[in-house]
Amino acid sequence: MISIIITTLREFKTLPKAIAAALNQRLKDDYEVLVIGPDEETARIVKSFSSARVKYLKDQGHGKPAALNMGFKQAKGDILVLTDGDVWIKEDILNRLLKPFAGKGIGAVSGRPISLNSRHDMFGFWSHFLTEAAHQWRLRGGIFPCSGYLYAFRNIIKDIPEHVLAEDGIITQMIRGKGYGVSYVPEAEVYVKYPDNLRDWLKQKTRSTGGYVQKHSRRERNILQEMFSGLKLFFIYPQTFREYFWLFLLYLLRLYLWLRIFWEIKIKKQKFEDLWQMVRSTK
N or C: lower Cβ tally within 10 Å for the chain? Predict the structure, then answer.
């Protein structure tokens, strides 16, 4: 059996499409869809689907790791598929994502995020560059984190620390720690709207990148790995002088971001609640 877990927080516009996409997968195995959110509107959206496969779980609003721990305890599947309420996948994508599990040594499989933003403005270009850099990194193999937008793993993780910012990184590391390999299926595309303003961009990247400064998932990603993964693309990805300028600004901002994260987490020792902030422009 497969358990598809969708975590969501006030994503009322995009959640119906995410649930519908999960139900349109034509999986070879039986499956369930668990939608985890803290609000009544999310419950109403889930109840609007007539399928008995869909179940709503009410979390207590303590963050995504706590919501996932609830889902892990309720999931019946041998394989868990994790995704979000503000992204969507095409029909039959999950069969591709799950195919590597035919090998007993594979414990987790990552999908490939695709940006829905326009490449013709700065923030949209940044999203396309960063997703392409992550794609090339995963293609090379070695140690890489699964993408939190879409990934699957064997149901052998029952609990993760509730203060981690990068739950995809810690889960990937825990899977490797149990002796399993991690695979990447670039054909398993998940479509994502990224931030379109600086304030939301910093919020999202502080959360997603900050988790790799925490000791739990440091091995999966660091500033040197990030710079190396994007170095080759720096010279071949931009198509215009304007895009080269945007990319130069991105590198400066990423350096500032890593320094800011180190200061807030290691020096100021900011709490999880202060660092995890909702990003509205992606909803």
Answer: N
| Token pair belonging to 176 | 């490797």
Say how far apart CA 28 and CA 178 lie, in whole Å.
27
For the chain, how big is the Rg over CA atoms in Å? Answer: 18
CA 79/CA 76 separation, integer angstroms: 9
Distance CA 230, CA 216 (A): 24
Q: What is the rounded CA–CA span in Å between residue 147 and residue 165?
A: 13
- Reference 101, options 42, 19, 181; nearest CA is 181
Calpha distance 161→167 (Å, rounded): 8
Kindly list the distances between the CA atom of residue 283 and the CA atoms of 41, 140, 250, in Å, as whole numbers in the listed order: 15, 32, 23
Structure tokens at 165: 């910012």
Q: What is the DSSP letter of 121?
A: S
In this structure, CATH architecture of domain 2-195: Alpha-Beta Complex (3.90)
Which residues, 6+ apart, have CB-to-CB distance to 267 below 8 Å?
none
Whether 79 and 101 have beta carbons less than 8 Å apart is answered as yes
28 token code pair: 């070879």
Given the DSSP bridges, would you call strands 181-192 and 87-89 parallel, antiparallel or unpaired?
A: antiparallel
Contact in structure between 63 and 165 (CB atoms under 8 Å) = no
Q: 0.85 cut: is pTM over it?
A: yes
pLDDT at 282: 64
Average pLDDT over residues 142-156: 93
pLDDT in tens, 194-253: 999 988 888 777 766 655 554 444 454 555 556 665 667 777 899 999 999 999 999 888
